[in-house]
Amino acid sequence: APAEFVQASFAMTQDSMDLDPDLPSNISEEVTSSPPPGTKKQIPQSIIIGVRKGGTRALLEMLDIHPDVAAAATEITIEKTPGYFTSALAPERIRAMNSSIKLLLILRDPTERVISDYTQVYFNRLENHKPVQAIENLLVRNGALNTRYKAIQRSMYDIHMRNWLQHFSLEQIHIVDGNALIQDPLPELQKVERFLNLPPRIISSNFYFNQTKGFYCIRSDGRERCLHESKGRPHPTVNSTVLQQLRSYLHEHNRTFFRLVKRTFDWQ
Ligand SMILES: Nc1ncnc2c1ncn2[C@@H]1O[C@H](COP(=O)(O)OS(=O)(=O)O)[C@@H](OP(=O)(O)O)[C@H]1O
């Protein structure tokens, strides 16, 4: 198994309740070869910059199947930090660290992402014995959509993308379709292999659909594994009027985002 937990290149500030459940705030994860004792950690050649709840863990684990990503003394070091995409400072700092870095960005339907984000915070709060609220109470304030709710702000992909495009060219950012990765992982991973100039090594038998989990799981090195139970949790049913308000609000942001990245996505 690859070394997984490595000190982040720089710590980003994040909300205490926002974290990936398996990680403290200033730690990011890597899939890399284990360096021989006494040698320094490599600067990553590629970073999964987000988006939080987009499928960053699934993408990292699935790329880990590739021998040149996971095996010792080979090519690529990849790090994942879901909070980078929505961080104002990350683009500039990452460019200062490595201006030729290849950025991987996994995005899913931004409305679904809001609900997933809420669900994660909800379970974190339960675990920490903190009070929880119905999602509608967070989505709506004084009868209108609460666009200051962080989960909604993180789903305004155009705003964050603009910031990245001030520091990186579009060619340096590969966008993985998070909904497509859930439906059928292989084609999305093959596009990533091409983007990273890796020889094609990930194949269809590396994936099998697990009925109980309701998601694809990974088969590699003679092992079968699904993601942690916190990945792929059921979402609450949202009041349909509120859901419609959220969708139509994000629709405009999506259109701007599609123009920025010169590509469209199948988001409802
Ligand atoms: N194969 C597979 N198995 C399980 N889960 C999968 C998979 N592929 C994508 N996903 C989706 O990944 C979502 C979690 O995203 P992240 O890993 O980026 O979350 S985090 O920001 O790091 O906490 C997670 O969101 P939720 O469904 O809301 O739990 C999943 O929808």
UniProtKB/TrEMBL annotation:
EC number(s) on file: 2.8.2.-
Molecular-function GO term, any one: [heparan sulfate]-glucosamine 3-sulfotransferase activity
Residues at which 3'-phosphoadenylyl sulfate binds: 53-57, 108, 116, 216, 231-235
The Sulfotransferase domain, residue ranges: 45-251
Membership in a protein family: Belongs to the sulfotransferase 1 family.
PANTHER family the record matches: HEPARAN SULFATE SULFOTRANSFERASE, SULFOTRANSFERASE
Protein name, as recorded: Sulfotransferase
Taxonomic source organism: Oryzias sinensis
